[in-house]
Target: Putative 2'-deoxynucleoside 5'-phosphate N-hydrolase 1
Amino acid sequence: MSRKIYFAGSIRAGREDADLYARLIEQLRQYGKVLTEHVGNSSVEKEEKDMSEKEIHDRDMEWLNESDYLVAEVTQPSLGVGYEIGRAINLKKTVLCLFRPQTGKRLSAMIRGAENESTFIVKDYKESEAQTIFKEFFKEEL
Model:
């Protein structure tokens, strides 16, 4: 399978969902190579401590350029994830944003309003629904 997936989730804006990210990444592996598996690692900030912010940015942008899809968990607001989504749109990547409304948070209108049902998809979900969402999202190439 040659599909490459860039998974985006909050790192510096809060790591409360790191375990969830790891489980989502595990499921995404069924659909292709996840280039950013480190996002699900609870010690990602420690692992990147010897990297400059420029090195982190450049590495991540290289992965984003290489990817076919961006899948973003957007429940925890993050400037970095928003930046990655914007760059993915400019690179003409297909984007899937996952949001858990049951947390009581509100999704940015800039994300929700960008949905076009083809190249930019936003799904409200519970974790138990993720596999079904991924199957539907990647269906055209299975």
